[in-house]
Design a protein that fits this description.
It is built from 14 helices and eight strands. It is mainly alpha-helical.
């Protein structure tokens, strides 16, 4: 029974396996058939869409071809019209060319006639010129020279007359205007006429103090000179000691220190060095205060502290006896007044006038003119370029680029030339007078020259046979121009040329 059961179970198992196999094959065949059906449906749909697209493409192509054929027809019609217009235009141009050719032939005929007449006229002109030369006994070139000479003489006379008239009118009007501006500016500034003189003489209470200043074996005076950088002159001048130094600031420090020492009475090397150090600080403070006060007096704000400090050094600097710091303030005020009168920039003119001589405060270790040194110093501290040009051009070392630069120069000349502003030593005065006379005598045709009115006017006497009236006017202008180029002087110099003609006869 067990064997039969086993066989039965095996048969059941075999039958189950076979049934599963055949069922699986059936499922695969059924799925494959479904996929084939789907593919056939897709192919049918794709073929239908392809037929639809093909029909649409054919319709579009037909429309495009029809449209292109219409445009081609229209374009062909337009081209035919253009060809007709071109042919018509060509016909017109050819007709016009024929007319021009005919006109050119007529002009050529007329030109030949005109050339023939011109040749005849030239022949007649040459014959007439020969006859005129025979009658006048002059060649054509000689007649031309005589005519030019006569015209030149007449033109020179007219030119001299017009020149004198214009020059007189311009001088009269310019002098009136300048006199008004300068007088108004000077009256409004109203500075003192007495120039300040920086003294280097220190008064002492008694003659005994001279010995104490010198000290044993001269040790005190040596220590003082070495510490202060000056020369102390102890001579026979009663109750006074002279301090000599080219540096005005060092001279002022030494003067203040020696005054304190003579009042205090304690004069020995250690105390001398202490006093000089204290006075150096004191003078630095005075310099700063002087620069700030000067800027305040001039009505100028916004300058760099170093610029004000350098301006303060001018308190101890003089030029021909005129204090340079007071001169700077005065020039600034004059420049402001002149700028307001003629419509220039008042603020820049005042600053240019105030700083124009700042280079004179530089020490001797810096090379260059005071104008160039001052301009370079101000450029480092951001001063306006217009002001810098006014500084470096007020002695014409560079070109004046603005009206403010011209105003600064004019204000400087007014401040230096007004009565009592500066003094001049006798030697310089005589040298300037002699230079004026020698410069005038260097011109051809000058007989004598005299500088008068303290060098403010030069009168030149010329030889009447060599210099005519027109040449006299030119000579005065040339002399004035040479004086401007070669000499330095305050104010202006008047040049007067005198030409005298005398006729003398004797009755017998």
């Amino acid at each position: 029974m067990n064997v039969i059961n086993i066989i039965v179970e095996i048969l059941v198992l075999v039958v189950g396996v076979a049934a599963g196999y055949f069922y699986h094959r059936y499922q695969q065949d059924r799925a494959l058939k479904n996929q084939q059906d789907k593919a056939e449906n897709i192919l049918k749909i794709a073929s239908e869409q392809a037929r639809l697209i093909e029909s649409q493409a054919r319709e579009s192509a037909t429309k495009i071809v029809q449209s292109a054929e219409g445009e081609i027809k229209e374009r062909r019609i337009e081209l035919n019209r253009d060809a007709e217009r071109i042919d018509k235009r060509r016909t017109e141009i050819e007709a016009r060319a024929d007319k021009l050719e005919q006109r050119e032939q007529n002009l050529n005929k007329r030109q030949s006639v005109v050339d023939k007449r011109a040749n005849e006229i030239d022949t007649l002109y040459d014959q007439e010129m020969v006859k005129l030369e025979q009658i006048a006994q002059l060649t054509q070139e000689e007649a031309r020279k005589e005519l030019f000479a006569a015209v030149e003489k007449e033109a020179r006379a007219d030119m001299a007359r017009i020149y004198r008239q214009i020059e007189a009118e311009a001088r009269e009007e310019g002098e009136k205007r300048a006199r008004k501006l300068i007088a108004d500016a000077i009256q409004r500034v109203a500075s003192e006429h007495v120039a300040e003189v920086t003294s280097s003489v220190v008064p002492i209470p008694s003659e005994e103090m001279k010995g104490r200043i010198v000290g044993r074996n001269g040790r005190n005076i040596k220590a003082f000179e070495q510490a202060a950088g000056v020369d102390v002159i102890v001579d026979d001048t009663p109750e006074a000691v002279t301090i000599s130094c080219f540096d005005s600031v060092r001279r002022e420090i030494a003067r203040r220190a020696l005054t304190r020492l003579t009042v205090d009475g304690r004069i020995h090397p250690a105390h001398i060095e202490k006093i000089i150090e204290e006075e150096t600080k004191g003078v630095d403070k005075v310099i700063n205060e002087a620069g700030e006060q000067a800027a305040f007096d001039a009505g100028i704000a916004g300058l760099h502290p170093e610029v004000l400090r350098m301006m303060g050094r001018l308190k101890f600097r003089t030029s021909y006896g005129q204090n340079q710091l007071a001169h700077a303030v005065e020039v600034s005020k004059l420049a402001g007044i002149l700028a307001a009168e003629i419509g220039a920039n008042v603020e820049l003119s005042k600053v240019g006038g105030f700083l124009h001589d700042i280079g004179k405060a530089m020490d001797h270790n810096q090379e260059g003119t005071h104008a160039s040194l001052g301009a370079e110093f101000c450029r480092r501290y951001g001063v306006n370029s217009i002001v810098i040009n006014a500084i470096e051009s007020h002695h014409h070392e560079v070109d004046q680029l603005t009206i403010e630069a011209v105003i600064a120069e004019a204000a400087d000349a007014i401040s230096g030339a007004r009565p009592g502003a500066r003094r001049e030593d006798l030697e310089a005065y005589i040298k300037r007078i002699r230079t004026l006379e020698e410069l005038s005598l260097s011109f051809e045709g000058v007989s004598q020259a005299f500088a008068i009115q303290a060098g403010r006017e030069v009168r030149v006497i010329v030889k009447p046979d060599n210099i005519d009236d027109l040449a006299s006017a030119r000579l005065a202008r040339d002399i004035a121009k040479k004086i401007e180029e070669t000499m330095q002087y305050p104010g202006q110099i008047k040049v007067t040329v005198i030409r005298e003609t005398r006729a003398t006869e004797f009755a017998k």
